[in-house]
Amino acid sequence: MEQNNNAGSRMAEMNKNKEEKSSGKDQNPTKKEAKESLVMKQSLMVVLIHIIFTTPRMLASLFVVFEPRYRVGGEYQNLYFVSYAAISVTDSVNAFVNFFIYLRFNSKFTNYFLETIYERFVSSVS
């Protein structure tokens, strides 16, 4: 009789755990889930920043297609040069920001950077 009670209580406990997991009440995310969440945040940030900083390049490329005077030697040559200089800056800012995103979210990248590149730089300066 006691075995049936133990089996019944184990089944009830398993059902309770299953319901909690399916309803999202599991308060302790596993290490794997936390890492996956961090990777998703990093990926989303990199993609959004890339979209933001490549939008001027896409717009300028479209403008070249639809406006024949927007080229070197054209009527809007100065605007062409200024816009592509600004695009060069946005590309550089994109790379700069991504570097810090990787430092923040990727511990392997951070460790490699600190152990190899940073240490070599500090030792060569002093």
Automatic annotation (TrEMBL):
Record flagged with keyword Transmembrane helix: yes
Record's keyword terms, sorted: Membrane, Receptor, Transmembrane, Transmembrane helix
Entry coiled-coil feature ranges: none
Annotated region described as Disordered, given as residue ranges: 1-36
Origin superkingdom: Eukaryota
Record-annotated membrane-spanning stretches: 44-66, 78-103
This protein's record includes keyword S-adenosyl-L-methionine: no
Protein's UniProt name: Chemosensory receptor A
